[in-house]
Amino acid sequence: MDIYIGIDVGSVSTNVVAMDQNDHIIFKEYTRTNGQPLESVKKGLKLLEEDLKRIFYTVKGVGTTGSGRQLAGILVGADIVKNEITAHATATVNFHPTVNTILEIGGQDSKIIIIQDKMVVDFAMNTVCAAGTGSFLDHQSERLGVPIQDFGGLALTAKKDVRIAGRCTVFAESDMIAKQQYGFSKAEIIKGLCDALVRNYINNLGRGKALKAPYVFQGGVAANKGIKAAFERELGCEIIIPKYYNVMGAIGAAILAKEYIEVSGEETKFRGFGAAELAFKPRSFECEDCANCCEVIKVELNGKTVAIWGDKCGKWANSVTG
Amino acid sequence: MRIGLPRALLYHYYYPLWKSLFEQLGVEIVISDITSKQLVQEGVKVTVPEICLPIKIFNGHIINLLSKEVDYIFIPRFIGVESGKWFCPKFIGLPELADYTIDGVKSKILTVDIQGKKESTCEWTNYRPLCEALQVTPKELKKALKTAERVWQHFRDCCKQGFTIEEAEKMCSEDMRGSERTAHHTHDITLGVLGYVYNVYDPFVSMDIIKKLHGMNVRVITFEMLDEKRIHEKFKRKSKNLYWTFTDKIYGAAVELMENHQIDGLIHITAFGCGPDSIVGKMMELDSEKFKKPFMTIRVDEHTGESHLLTRIEAFVDMIKRQKISERRRELA
User: Fold this and answer.
1) How far apart are CA A173 and CA B3, in angstroms?
2) What pTM, to 2 d.p., does this model score?
3) What is this model's ipTM?
4) Which of A116, A123, A305, B212 shows the greatest Cβ crowding within 10 Å of its Cβ?
5) Where do the domains of chain B lie?
6) Which residues of A touch B (CB under 8 A)?
7) How does pLDDT run across A27-45, given as a tens digit for each residue?
């Protein structure tokens, strides 16, 4: 069987999928990055290798995406390294060809992608602020003592509405404390929080965009029933949650890798599952040669420098050949 | 005598002019360093927090020049270069802004009022105060201005052939003359990159967006590459005059590019805190819907991370490239 591997290294989760030549997903793994992107990719690859022992296969192509796409791409020997927008849109269109709007909320960023006839025609991403993303919900679940898995379900049991200020995480938090003191229940507070997050998302990312159904909601936060319900209330129609909602980026990377290999006819650059054993050492340092003080990232493989990036002048990046 | 030129704001548009002018008048020019993280931080530290990023950067360049032992720092007051249009108030008050922000700069400020009808700024009355400061006669100043204007026009002509400001500046300097250069390399798509020269051409603010786009096989058109008359025509058709010289130019350029079928999309680069951009940005956004042109705004401040910017540009370029491929496939089918 020919398989294609997709890897999405995000700030919060690292996802690995394997797909056959008919775009069927035969393996998926969603793990927390925990600040160690390389370790989580290696872990994902090991699990995949274990799983694949049940079949005969050849790896035909590998794609990476997410904020750690460059690093992961070097580790595994990726054929394509793609941005998250293209990866997510590619996967969604594959499963839901009629989609018009993709709502994606991940660990530390959120995006909205507008699709027409299977093509991306517009998109927006949140900027520096992480209000209204998965990390924010994580933090609040901890504060309220409600496990994140139960968060959304609890919101659905709320009897009353309570309005929480959702513009900024810091203010949302103080507002929640105040509303708790007024005597609102945890369920009501959580529902208010879901509404606030969705309101903030639509106002910031959807501003000035023509939002049209069908809507597909994906990313880790799509597991949260409370947020789904809040989106349905706000948009006034049903929201589709794809089967593989939390690994869509990785699936997109796999599909893009397949497209690339098919068009170019190239052999994959995949280093093999042995990559998980390789002694990769990424380290970063602040270059002191000029006033820019660039943070340079350097990756070593068995003591040899294989990649450097992050410098404005290109002096370090260009020092690596081959 | 050594005169410092801050490598900021309209330096990016008028450098060839000022270089020629001052050199003819027997003055040594000292240019501040290329904008760096440290230089920006110096500027941010002394400037009022509410003001826009380009002014903070400008102040950083002045501080940089103070350490270079210059006799004067040239801070022109740009009021207007065409009738009925003005510069943003921060340009009109630039010498005072510097004086009240930076200690020890007052005695070094060399300023002139730019207020006339020529974009080249070369009416000699504009530069009259230089006679006293530099000990030159009005006759010498007039002669130098005439030559400087010619140099600047040559620079502008190079821009209009499709060269970036950096390339055009190099072509204007003696050593580059006659070398074979071409502005039209192969490309998959063409994008308009709109924004003030001090945002687009400052490597810190724009994070070298033009170079990044060239690397992705994208041809880039900026407002100063377009013919002024056509930009002006576009603007005259609009019911609203924005009153700001460069804001009008950018808006006119946006309309010109949106009407052009060879342009695949537009990117607007704006610095956080820019008043005029908050209006013109929205106008361009609304027009882009009308013309069905992909449009993206990139807003930068002193904290902007490069990876975020790169993701956006990559996604935007990808979106357009993939649309083109699918269109071509449909045509073939």
Assistant:
1) 54
2) 0.88
3) 0.83
4) A123
5) 2-172, 184-332
6) 67, 82-86, 118-123, 125, 127-128, 208, 290-294, 310, 312
7) 999 988 887 888 899 999 9
